[in-house]
């Protein structure tokens, strides 16, 4: 019995000694995970600045005079190249007036030639009368010759004035003919068609509204602390919340001064996209980074998510 007790006591002491030894082994400390906090540069790139999409140049085609709209070959939404014929007013009366004015001008030019010949003849006759020998013609005959020359020269002046009048009248009619034909002033999109062919219009009535085709621009403001990163030509990305799309762009201009009340710098960027859904006046979020965000994963409803830009 004493022998068994001694053996059990030795075993317990050995077990305790092993447990103490294991506890005395130092466990290596884990290194702290690197901070995931973004750097100031990354923060500036990922921050989005509020802006608005600017519209391109807009013009309205108006009726140049009272009359009938004879033809209009474009619809709202049509893209039109510069110089394309879009429509015209009724031209029949103007073309008749042009022909009449042309005939009157030709008649005036013929009359001028005739009186110029008469004036030349009268001048030559007077010069012959004034040659020696003196006293061959009476004073009355010389006076009549001088009067005849003066009359012929005055008729030439009247004929020339009439020609200028006829030329001005013809130019005015041709100008009206040119105004009565509607051509696209530049590459554009038809925004609104106000009237239909056959309509009777008053002078100055709008017929078409055109918006210049081409890339849109975005005007936005960024805090002055980011002015060091904003340089002309910098590739950027522009998020349009209304469309749920992020599009590429390029910084085009930057204000040389800071707006004192808001401490913001105003800038303008070129939206490099031909997306027909973009509209002037849309809200934009501008990021000073050229890397487009990956598309969001599908939501629970199975619909694609939108990029977060709010």
From TrEMBL:
Residues in coiled coil: 91-125
Pfam families, sorted: Beta-barrel_RND_2 (PF25954)
Record flagged with keyword Zinc-finger: no
Region (Disordered): 21-45, 289-310
Entry GO terms, CC: efflux pump complex
A GO term for molecular function: efflux transmembrane transporter activity
Keyword entries, A-Z: Coiled coil
Domain CusB-like beta-barrel, residue spans: 219-290
Keyword Coiled coil: yes
UniProt-listed PANTHER family: HLYD FAMILY OF SECRETION PROTEINS, MULTIDRUG RESISTANCE PROTEIN MDTA
Similarity comment: family membership: Belongs to the membrane fusion protein (MFP) (TC 8.A.1) family.
Name of the protein in question: CusB-like beta-barrel domain-containing protein
Organism: Cystobacter fuscus
